[in-house]
Structures are given as C-alpha cells and as structure tokens.
Write a structure and sequence with these properties.
Blueprint: E1 10-14, H1 20-24, E2 31-32, E3 35-36, E4 39-40, H2 50-55, E5 58-62, E6 65-66, E7 69-72, E8 77-79, E9 90-92, E10 95-96, H3 110-123, E11 126-130, H4 137-149, E12 154-158, E13 171-174, E14 177-181, H5 186-198, E15 218-221, H6 225-230, H7 232-251
Parallel strand pairs: 1-5, 2-5, 11-12, 12-15
Antiparallel strand pairs: 3-4, 6-10, 7-8, 7-9, 13-14
Amino acid sequence: MQALNSDTKIEIFTLNNDLVIETFFKNENSVYTGFVSNKWVGFEKENIDNDTLNASRINFYKIHGSLDWCQLTDGTIKKRMNENIDEGNIELQPFLIFGHGAKIYTIDPFFSLLEHFKNALKKKKYFFVIGYSFFDPHINNLIFNELASSADKLLIIINPKIADDISENDYEEKNGIQKVLKREAKQKLVDFFSNVQQNPIYTELPDFNIKKISSDVFEYVSVGVSDFLTNTESYIDFAEKIASQYKDETNLF
C-alpha cells in the first residue's frame, strides 16, 4: 500500500465473508466496503461523503455478504461494529448468501455488488482470479461471458490445485513463469468448467449456464496466493506477453 501512488484505488472482489482484510487494514482506515457510519450506502460516489471516499484506498466488494453484516426488519443493512442494535429489530444475522444455487438476489447489497463486478469485468483487459474454485456458476457465467465478448480478454487463474486430473507432467515454464498449464492439457480444465456449469449440485438452472469456454482465453498457473503477491509484476508481464503472442497468432490467419 505504501508503495502505491496516493491516488491509486485498488478494487478487490471477493466471495469470502470473513474479516481478514478489514482487520489487517483496520488502523489505516483504508478499506471501504460500502458502509458509511455502519449503514449500507453502496459504491456509487454520490452516496459517499468525500472524507470516506478520499480516506479509503481499497474498494472491497464482498459479493456474498459478510460476517459482520445484518439486515433489520425495515430492510436496512447495517454493519455490526461496536454498535448497539436492538435484537428485536434484526431480521437476518449474519447477512450472507450460503451454499450453492442460482444466488441471484434482486435486493441490495447483493444485486448492486454483482453489477459492479460485471462492470469491472467489462473495463479490464486481464482478469487475475486468485484462489477461486470455480464452483459458483453464477460468477462463472459473468466471467465466461466477458471472455467471449472480445478477443482481447484474458483470464489468468492463480490456484495451487483446481482439478484432480491435472498432473505435474501437465505443467511447463512459460515466459518466465513456472508451473503454467500446457496448451495440450488445457482441455482438462475446459472439461472441469463444463462439468461444474452443468452440475445441479452447484446450480439451480444448469440449462442457462455457459457450458464451454475456449482454451485460448485463459492461462492456469499452479501457485499459491503468496507467490502471486510476491511476484505481481512478473505475472502482469506474463499476461502482456500471452496477449501479444495470441494476437500475433490470430493475425496470421
């Protein structure tokens, strides 16, 4: 954080509901989760006071809710942080989306959080997806749909293990990055995605899910989060090189 320009705003989208990030940056008051004075107001700038907007360095979108959120009987969403709330006024606590299924809620904050995620995908050329299992088809659909929308989009998956049938022999060194899934082994991951998207355990509406993605739109690197954070610039350079190579190959035809 200290190495970043003071005007830099980091956007992180997460499916986790724990408080690790908020706790880590608590003393800096640098994480904004959509709440002002412990009340949900969202991420639209017109709803956020300038002090809060300028103080936060991280926009942290908790798509499935958080352990410290609750919904009151009047529909208000509150963050329970050293605030006395009459237990009789609490409708749901914690305010979370559990389990698998469609998970498409038409109420805030969940609906607007998904909208922000969708809009962020449209704006970005590269998607670094870190530690995600791909067992949420409603999230997969947003990612896969955006990958199919433009030849310039690229998904970089960072995960030490994602599919059981991928072996050590399926990896190679590529553009300075170790343990990149070989091109000929990518079909295993394509099949894995397809199986998840069609599995009724993970989705209530399998017929509506995107079933296939091209093996050309993603790279899978079998490393942990710490390796990515330590070598972020190398991974960004890796993404740039892959995109350039793919563009050159496309121009041959």
